[in-house]
Write a structure and sequence with these properties.
Jelly Rolls; 29% strand; 10 strands; 434 Repressor (Amino-terminal Domain); alpha+beta; 4-stranded antiparallel β-sheet; disordered N terminus; 6-stranded antiparallel β-sheet
């Protein structure tokens, strides 16, 4: 009886280990991380992560915790049994951070993920007539994409002014001071995405 229980326990451990490896690999690829990048972010050796993904080792709880922190998921999600379990996170409007211009006429809801803020930011923009948003230069090579859903805006960069209307998208270098202004008497709604580490544009 004791032997059978031990066999069942070992079998169960192998199943969990197998699912763990698949889950770690799936999440790593979903976030477009290499083994080296995940190793750097988690503090777990690249060789250990590789062994975990190939189900060649049973990691300690501390190792699982470090990987879960790097992949920004809970331990129970990393240990989840379903191979195809989706990653789902929902925020209410009250939990969504907001930025506003000094006059309050330009409002940006931060709908981007905090994990990507150093290289990718995106916002839900709403602005009143007469509103403007002045921004300092971002890091070299950064690109901003402004997709207007309602109303009209103009973007000024280095003395050049370009208009963008509902249904249009404007992409521009934002590694220099730039201003977005609402044009006309209608409120403006838009989605703005800033790629902080875009390809260098020389």
């Amino acid at each position: 009886m004791a032997g059978r229980a031990r066999t069942d326990l070992e079998s169960g451990a192998q199943v969990v280990s197998g699912q763990l490896g698949k889950t770690v690999q799936r999440l790593r690829k979903a976030y477009n991380l290499s083994l080296s990048e995940l190793a750097e972010q988690s503090g777990v050796a690249k060789s250990i992560i590789s062994q975990i993904e190939r189900n060649e080792t049973n990691p300690t709880l501390a190792t699982i915790w470090r990987l879960s922190q790097a992949l920004d998921v809970s331990i129970d999600r990393v240990l989840a049994s379903a191979d195809d379990e989706p990653f789902v996170e929902k925020l209410s409007s009250a939990d969504t951070p907001m930025l506003a211009s000094h006059d309050g006429k330009f409002r940006l809801a931060i709908i981007g993920w905090i994990k990507t803020v150093e290289w990718l930011q995106w916002y839900d923009v709403s602005a009143d007539p007469g509103g403007s948003l002045e921004s300092d230069a971002h890091q070299r090579g950064s690109i901003e994409c402004l997709s207007v859903h309602a109303g009209e805006a103009e973007v000024e960069i280095g003395g050049h002014v370009e208009s963008v209307k509902a249904g249009e998208t404007l992409r521009y270098r934002c590694d220099r001071p730039h201003v977005i202004r609402v044009v006309g008497k209608q409120p403006m709604r838009a989605t703005m995405v800033c790629i902080m580490k875009a390809a260098v544009m020389d």
